[in-house]
Amino acid sequence: MALAGAWALLARRLPLHGPEGPGEGFVPLLLAGLLGVLGLLLLVAPGRAAPPAGAGWGRATLVAVLLALYIAAMTRAGFLLATPVYVALAVWQCGGRSPLGIAATAVGITLAVWLVLARLFQVPLP
Question: Which of 23, 71, 94, 103 gives 18 a disulfide partner, CB atoms 3.0 to 4.6 angstroms apart?
């Protein structure tokens, strides 16, 4: 909730309306609102499932280290090669055990992000 509030304050510094529609601050403010609503839902109705065995700071730290390695690998290998490897390792580290499910998730997320960023929004990816 605090992150959503801080994000919203930062987003309000950007214009909400531009000459041709929503301004630069529209999407960040929308995401801050979504983050706040989801945080509120977690406060009101916390999850009932127990965390997976071994969940904690060690696993989170390993995923953060994987992210740093992914960023370094992306500049050398490119988005389409580095991303599925990172996603597969992150899913496995977060509890995914089915090799087919992990591979499908990694390829699906990679292609979805690539299609949206590279093709739809024409953002150059490494």
Answer: 23
